[in-house]
What does this fold into?
Amino acid sequence: MTNKDEQVELAKLAEQAERYTDMVAAMKRVAESNCELTDEERNLLSVAYKNVVGAHRSPWRVISTIEQRAESSERKRQMAKEYREKIESELKDTCHDLLTLLDKYLIPKTTTTESKVFYLKMKGDYYRYLAEIASGVERQKMAEESQHAYKDGFDVAKNQMPVTHPIRLGLVLNFSVFHYEILNEPDVACRLAKQAFDDALAEIDSINEQSYRESLLMKAYETEVNKTAHSVALLVFADGFP
It folds into this structure.
């Protein structure tokens, strides 16, 4: 078993134990191994960072709300501010860690359309997470980086991937979330999400069973974009689902 294989197995063990920081460390070593990642390794990397970042995004929202509401107590507000900044620092470190892997190792080494779109989607996602916690010029900068990554991935997906492909759907729907949450453009967000589902539904007869199941999972993203469009997509996609 090679060192890379050992790190992959370690990442799987860490995932089962829900020790996602350890999982990140193992998959970071895999990403730095000068080899293109397999689909399995790519997904392990995504799961690892998603869980570590997710464990910071939710607490950040909670503490930010507490800070904003603590108007009557300067001491409490200051404590909340300091704690929020601590969470922010950890979140930024993790996001920048992954973004460095993407730019230095993963995107340059990719030889498949799927991986390229997958990594550009990740790049858009993690810059979006940074934009969520930033303000002013920094927020604008992170938003621009996120938008560029999503657009680059979308351009590749439109030209080289079927409309029913789960990775293409995931990118488009996350791009719509970006428009909704970061740019405050609900109309654009809804239009992107609805178009993605309409295009996929038009080609539904050609999709294989596994891709269909994976595509169904993507419908959850639309909840964040538009409730009505989500309900329509849910009903149509669920029709006849085994």
In short: Residues 1-109 form a domain with the Delta-Endotoxin; domain 1 fold (CATH 1.20.190.20). The chain has a mean pLDDT of 86. DSSP finds ten helices and no strands in the chain. The chain has two domains: 1-109, 112-242.
